[in-house]
Specification:
This protein has 164 residues and is α+β, with helices and mostly antiparallel strands. The chain contains three helices and nine strands, in the order ββααββββαβββ. It is 30% helix and 27% strand. The N and C termini lie close together (5 Å).
Length: 164
């Protein structure tokens, strides 16, 4: 699977870059699909997410209290944008220090399920983010993507010659 990290100018700022993932052959990023899918049913939660992301980009950076870590497997870098106990919507992302956040997709996590693995939609979304995180990690190790105090730079299009 080939994909590109696309910066979201309306959310990014001097404190943090906010990206999403554009899968080759798709017209919208994973975050655009997520927001469009849930904007009517979860208006307040989507609005809260946008406000948190704008704050990160322009004022506060990607502070740890905004995220629930270890949403994937240990060491894969997948987090979820933190939800308040009474909120259901999960947005999976990858966080690089305080300087960059890569948004994926997600969905509602009913209180009746314990883990994302118990819900087919969340499982699909989290598994995709784990895969994407592994490819970005490899690109960083290879020197194709660099992380600095200014955020991510370099070759932000990932070509996976061996993937599906």
């Amino acid at each position: 699977m080939n994909f590109e990290l696309v910066e979201i100018p309306s959310l990014s700022g001097d404190c943090c870059q906010i990206f999403s993932i554009l899968i080759e052959g798709e017209e919208q990023t994973l975050f655009e699909n997520f927001a469009e899918e849930y904007e009517e049913e979860y208006v307040d939660e989507i609005s809260d997410m946008y406000n948190s992301l704008k704050f990160m980009g322009n004022e506060g950076g990607a502070r740890p209290q905004f995220f629930k870590d270890k949403e994937g497997s240990p060491g894969d870098g997948v987090s979820a944008l933190y939800d308040h106990p009474d909120k259901m919507l999960r947005l999976y992302c990858i966080v690089y220090g305080r300087v960059a956040v890569i948004l994926g997709g997600g969905g509602p996590k009913p209180k009746s399920i314990r883990a994302w693995q118990d819900d087919p939609k969340l499982c699909r979304e989290a598994t995709m983010m784990k895969y994407i995180s592994s490819k970005i990690t490899q690109a960083i190790k290879d020197g194709d993507i660099k992380i600095t105090d200014a955020g991510l730079s370099g070759e932000l299009k990932i070509i996976d010659d061996y993937g599906d």
